[in-house]
Amino acid sequence: MPRRRTTTVHIPRQRGRRSRHTPFVVVVPHQPTWAGRIAEAAGRALWKHRRTLLPTWVAIGAGLAVTIAHLTAPWLALPLALAAAAGPGWLAWAHRWRPSTSTLVRRWRYGIAAAVLVAGTWAAASVGFGPTAGLLEVLWLLQTITAQTVWFRMRAATARLAETPIKENLNDRVKPSA
User: Per the confidence metrics, is the pTM higher than 0.85?
Assistant: First the structure.
């Protein structure tokens, strides 16, 4: 027979007329249903991996926010469309005022600008036409998958970077003057 969790309940001393009678206790074992057990296990797993699933939670929150905005204020599509142009605008500004010869920096800039453009365009179109109109659901799903994949890869890269020891160049040390 498997062991069950038990809880001790302290019954205070009875005062007044009831002091002559002994209290009675009803013990009811708690056995959650299979649905309750599955829900508890799923909740525990989601809580344990909450940082890993951050882009998915952000995408779900954005979907809810866009749905509410579509229902309450569809005129917000115009300001969101202007905000979508911020990505390419920032990229043009960065190329003009902060030029870089590094390929890695340029890739990051193009990636960020593209992400802002696509996400802003999706948000504007979803607020204007509804989040389930046309291929907007597919675009949302592709954005979520892309963000989650990039998140996984970046977390793995930073974990590997944190595990590698820092090699110190002994020639770069400043020698104390005697």
Answer: no
